[in-house]
Write a structure and sequence with these properties.
single chain, 4-stranded mixed sheet, globular, binds ligand EPZ
Length: 421
C-alpha cells in the first residue's frame, strides 16, 4: 500500500497532457474480442483497471501485448478457449462485466460472476440482462455466477432502457453488432465513450447508426475484422486538472482534450468564477482565487458528470457562500465528505444533497481514499490545505489517473508518493 503526501503549494502553472479515457478503453478492449483478426489500440492509459481487463482477455484465450512504452495495445482475439470470467478478476473491477456481451456473441455462452456493489452504490446489472434476454439469450444465476446462453446467433430486438445506463448501452451494443437482424436501443446513454466504442466497432465493419443520440440502431453483420483505433482523451481526468488549477489560483493549459466533451464542467467552473478558454484540442484554466458558491446537480451526459461530483465538492469547500451539490446517479457517492470534513470543510449531507458552506481555508490531515473520485477530491483539497495532507489507500486513485503525482509535480505541486512497507 502506498500513500500520497501533499503540502500546500504555490498556484499550479504550466501544461499537462491528458491521457486516453479509462471509461472508453475498457469497453473497447472487451469489444476487440468480436473481431476475426488483430486490433491495435492507441492512446492507452496505463492504469490498474486496464491491466485487469487485459488479464481477463488473456485468461479467456486472447493474445494481448503492450507496445510503444505501453501506450499501445495489440489484441489477437484468437479462439476464445474459456467462456467463464474468473471471480478474482471480476471482483477487482466491475467493468469486467462488459466482457459478457462479446463473450455471449462470440461463443454462445458467457459465465460472469455477478459484480458486487462498491463504495458508491449497489451497481445492479438488470438492464444489461434485460437486453440479452430480449435478444434471445437464456439467463440463469446461481452460486454468484450469471450465465447467459444462446443457441446460434442472438436475434435483433427493440430494447428500451429504463435508465440511460452507460454499461448496459455498451454491453447491448457489443452483443447486437453480430446479431441476426436489427437491434434498436432506446433511451440509450449518449456519453462520448459510447460514441468512441461505436466508432471502433464501425471501423471493424459494424453497421451502427445514432451513437451519441438516445436511439441507436444496429444492423447485425456476419463478421467483424480487426481494426486500429485511438482512444479519446479522458474528460474526467481533464476536469480533475481543471479543478486543480482553479483550487490553487493557478494558470494551467490542458493538452490533448476534446473541449466539447467538457462543456458541462467548463460551464460550471465559469459560473464559479474560473476563467476557462478553449482551443481546438486544449483548454486554458485560470483562477484569481475568488470562487462563487453555486448549485450542482449530477445528470447523465451532457449534464454535469457524476464522476466530477467529488472534485467540484472539494472546490466549493473553498467558495464564498453556500453551495448545494445533488447526486442523482449513484445512491452513495458522498464518501469523500467525511474525509473532507477532517480537513476542515463544512459540509452537511441531507438525502441526496450535500450542503457546502465555503471556508477561507482547509487544513492538512490524515485521510483515506474510499473510491477513485473521492481520492481525487482529497488530492485537490490537499493542494490548497494549510500544512501536510497524507492520503492512504491510493490504489483507488491509481485505477483512474495515470501518474497523477508526476503530472501534478510537473505543474509545481508538492506531492510525493511514499511506498509503505
Ligand atoms: C459508467 O459506470 C462509468 N464506468 C462510471 O465511472 C460512471 O460513473 C457511470 O458510467 C455513469 O456515468 C465505466 O464506464 C467503466 P451506469 P456504469 O450503468 O456503466 C443504474 C468512474 O469513476 N443501473 O450508467 O456502471 C446504476 O445503479 C466510474 O470512472 C441500473 O439500475 O454506470 C446507477 O445508479 C464510476 N441497472 C446508474 O444506473 C443497470 O443494469 C448509472 O449506472 C445498470 C445501471
Amino acid at each position: 500500500m502506498s500513500r500520497l503526501i501533499i503540502t500546500e503549494a504555490a498556484p499550479l502553472k504550466g501544461k499537462v497532457r491528458i491521457s486516453g479515457a479509462k471509461n472508453s478503453v475498457l469497453p473497447i478492449i472487451a469489444a476487440s474480442l468480436l473481431a476475426e483478426g488483430e486490433s491495435t489500440i492507441e492512446e492507452i492509459p496505463y492504469l490498474n483497471d486496464v491491466r485487469i481487463m487485459c488479464d481477463l482477455l488473456s485468461y479467456i484465450g486472447a493474445g494481448v501485448e503492450f507496445l510503444d512504452n505501453r501506450s499501445k495495445l495489440r489484441i489477437i482475439p484468437g479462439s476464445v478457449s474459456c467462456s467463464t470470467a474468473p471471480y478474482e478478476l471480476v471482483n477487482k473491477m466491475r467493468a469486467s462485466f462488459l466482457i459478457m456481451g462479446p463473450l455471449l456473441t462470440k461463443t454462445g455462452i458467457a459465465r460472469v460472476p455477478l459484480p458486487g456493489g462498491c463504495a458508491i452504490g449497489s451497481r445492479p446489472v438488470d438492464l444489461h440482462l434485460k437486453g440479452f434476454l430480449a435478444m434471445g439469450a437464456e439467463i440463469k444465476q446461481e452460486h454468484g455466477l450469471i450465465e447467459a446462453r444462446v443457441r446460434g446467433r442472438l436475434k435483433g430486438a427493440k430494447i428500451y432502457l429504463d435508465f440511460p445506463s452507460v454499461g448496459a448501452t455498451e454491453n447491448i451494443l457489443m452483443a447486437a453488432v453480430l446479431a441476426d437482424g436489427v437491434t434498436t436501443i432506446e433511451n440509450a446513454a449518449i456519453e462520448p465513450e459510447i460514441v468512441d466504442l461505436a466508432t471502433y466497432l464501425t471501423s471493424m465493419g459494424a453497421d451502427i447508426k445514432g451513437a451519441g443520440t438516445d436511439t441507436i440502431r444496429i444492423c447485425g453483420v456476419s463478421s467483424l475484422k480487426g481494426s486500429s483505433h485511438s482512444i479519446i482523451p479522458d474528460r474526467i481526468e481533464a476536469g480533475t486538472y481543471m479543478i486543480a488549477a482553479a483550487i490553487t489560483q493557478g494558470d494551467v493549459v490542458l493538452e490533448n482534450v476534446v473541449p466539447d466533451h467538457l462543456k458541462p464542467v467548463s460551464a460550471k467552473l465559469r459560473e464559479i468564477g474560473v476563467e476557462v478558454s478553449e482551443e481546438l484540442t486544449s483548454i486554458h484554466v485560470r483562477s484569481s482565487g475568488k470562487l462563487n458558491a453555486v448549485d450542482v446537480k449530477t445528470l447523465p451526459y451532457p449534464g454535469f458528470p457524476t464522476d466530477m461530483q467529488a472534485q467540484v465538492t472539494a472546490l466549493l469547500s473553498r467558495a464564498r457562500g453556500t453551495s448545494i451539490v445533488t447526486e442523482t446517479i449513484f445512491e452513495n457517492r458522498f464518501m469523500h465528505v467525511g474525509e473532507l470534513k477532517r480537513m476542515g470543510a463544512n459540509i452537511k449531507i441531507e438525502g441526496r444533497s450535500a450542503i457546502v458552506e465555503g471556508r477561507e481555508k482547509l487544513t492538512g490531515a490524515l485521510v483515506k481514499a474510499t473510491d477513485l473520485r473521492a481520492g481525487a477530491a482529497l488530492i485537490l483539497a490537499g493542494l490548497c490545505a494549510e500544512g501536510k495532507t497524507e492520503i492512504s489507500d491510493i490504489e483507488h486513485i491509481d485505477r483512474g489517473y495515470v501518474r497523477i503525482d508526476e503530472k501534478l509535480r510537473a505543474l509545481g505541486a508538492k506531492i510525493e508518493r511514499v511506498e509503505e512497507e
